[in-house]
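Appendix B, record 7
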Amino acid sequence: MEKSFVGFGPASTPLPVREQDGAALTRRGQIGAVLRQLYGLLAGLAGGWAMLYGQLSPFALGLVLGLGEDCFAACGAGAVLALLLRGQGVRTVCLICAVGGAVVARWLWPRRYLPAAAAGCVLLLGSAFCFRMYIGGDGLLFSGAEAVLAAGIGFILRRWPAEKPGAGRLMLVLCGAAALGPLSLGMVNLGLTAAMFYTLVLACRGKIQPALSSAAVAAAGLVCADSALACSAVGLCCGTALGLLAQGDKLVCMAFYGGGALLGILAVQPPGMAFGYLAALGAGAGACLVLPRRLLMRDPSLAHDPAERAEGPQLSAAATRLNAAAESLSSLADTVNRVYEGLPRRQEGWRWVVDNTHDALCANCGRKEACWKEEYTVTMEGFEALRPILEEKQQVEAQDLPGQLARCVHPAALSGTVTRSFALYKSRQEARVHAEAMRTALTEQYSAVAQALSALGDQIGSPGSPEPYKSGRVAAFFSSLGMPPLECAVTLDDLGRTRAAVTLPRARFSQGELSALAGEVGKLCRRSFETPQKLSCKGVTTLLFTEKPLLRAVFGWAGAAAQGDVSGDAVQQFCSPTAAQMILCDGMGTGRPAAVDGNLAADLTGRLLRAGFTAELAARLVNVALALKSEEESGATLDLLSVDLYTGTARIFKAGAAPGFIVHEGQARTVGEAGLPVGVLGGVNGQSRMVRLAAGDVAVLVSDGLLVDGPGWVLKQLELSAAAGDSPEQIAQTLVETARTRASQDSRTDDITAAVLRLERY
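Structure tokens (predicted):
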């Protein structure tokens, strides 16, 4: 197998990159496996040691049933060890039998819950029944309760794994609190200390729902382990609730937390026991205080103090990498252009044909001295006279030689050599032109993509002012639906518009569900949101919520083919999250070839606009695509209208398109001038204009086939249609039918298309 190496110069030592990376990945996998086994062992120890109300011990079997396939065996070993250390006689033996049966069942039927649950519960109840038959007692009742609880714990951990926020993680918190609750180190209760540290970290991070739910579950575990901890458990919940009031500030959060915790701790009876609980509070807060801020504040919205955020915009890692990639592509395009301009140019003009003929034929001729020295002027005049003959016929015969060359002693050889030299000259000329076109297309594409990446990087780097409180509320709402978001950000842009982006594991939503989500998220953010845009990619789904605009767009279009049913014009009309987009592309010519160019240009432009590209960048990329589509000349006009539905600002971009029309307050006027279509030149010669539209205004894009008699009649027809209140579909249909009638009278045929947009109040 071929290997790649890292190293520069003779002094560097080659390192096999693939082997090195493979070894690193192997070590990482081995370390991860060891950590998972340790995690299972610790969970098993806690589950075997934890007891509820001094009698029930369901966590040992429940954790074995619910933990992952890679750590349940270690959990079983830890549970058995803890049960042996704790020791409860007959009931310990029953639990050990149940844990062993569950482990064996999970080995025999991997990834199946029911066989393991049945094996564990049956062995627990069966062994308890046998002992009761010979010894007596109420062990069967307790074993039945433990079997029911263990089955429920195992089901919860299978349904909601503990590795993700949710009910499974809360079950581990309950188990840990119940296991550590009876343990003390001097005056410090270990269960209360661990619970306070964990909930205080969540409170500092601003995790509202996880912090409150963890505090409640930990308090329940502490009370189940020791009823004397009831007052301190109440203080734990009060401290967590007050600590959440100071999101992002560690010291203030700890102060609020301590004040809330004191409400419960000072109620402890007898009063002397409160000192131990105060020590536990101090130990938990001290551990949180020494925790580095970069580990404590893992929520990006709370990673910096407000004063630090005010220093200036901080580009995210993704934005920095996009800008770096843009600079690299732009530098690559500039380098290719500089290298090309610095290369020596070979003189491959007509003089090269003359020199090649001399080297191939005349160099070994006996009359070389006479033809090329004594009669040099006459010989060059003969070759100049031969040039137009070759340009016309592409070849010459002996009888076509001009008089100056008729004295050649090898006329047939001379005509053949000149023909071959001229053919080689023409082929090299065509190759040079083709290479120039390919280089231009390549560098143009690099430059356009670099500019697009830079624009996207700027957008990512300055997404707007974050609103952590609203972000937390939206994240909590999706968590309550059983879909904890991977990312959730509510921001306020420079124009005061609220936007929300929620990234979830891959999920499907119907249109009705999306509308319902828009309503609920709008209530949380106190805004009226549009139905969110759904983007799915690589196992995640992102929902983009934007405020409802002030305006809405009503579209309509109509078209007629010049011949048959295939038109070279293509129309796309759609609304992006903040703007209404209307595209009209007219392929060069008529029929199917023109339809291919027109539809290709319209489809690519629509895709690029949906991805966030500007009109100029989209035109540059479409220009490259059309130029490289085939060896035949390709081209299409590009007519684009983009209307901001919040402000009514419209941007019109035209590359070779016919003039457009705007109807404002009943008065129609033209916009735009003629130019070259895309796909013809190496660059794009486009024009961009900005106009302001209001509710009731109409914008019209037309192909050149509609302007058979100029724009005058179109202006009058638009004013009549606006006064009559015609719909966009009716306006487009009227324009196309009238234009087709006028064209048939003059025997002029071309594809005719009209695309209409009218703004209305939302």
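Remarks on this record: The chain is about 55% helix and 15% strand. Residues 1-22, 299-315 have pLDDT under 50 and may be disordered.
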